[in-house]
Amino acid sequence: MKILMITPPTGGIDVYVSRLAQEMQRLGYEVDLLGCQRNEMAYDIDNKKWRTSQEAKSLVKRVIHQVDFASYDVVAFHYGKNDLEQYFPVALRGEGVKINKSVYFVHFLSWNLFSDYLGDEDSRVEVEEAVYSSFDQYLFFGEFARKFLTNKADHSLSGIVSYLPETHSHESVSESETREILAKYMSDESNNIETIFFPGFAANYKDHNLLLESLRYVDRPINLVFAGQGWSKRLGFDKKRINNVNTYVVDDYLTGKEYKVLSEKSLMGVFPYRQPTSKDEYFQGSGTLPNFIYAGKACVVLNEGAMPEYVGNSGIVVRDATAMNFAKAINELLDPKTRRKYEEKAIVRRPLFSVENHAQDCINLFKTNF
Question: Does the chain have fewer CB atoms within 10 Å around its N or its C terminus?
Answer without folding.
Answer: C
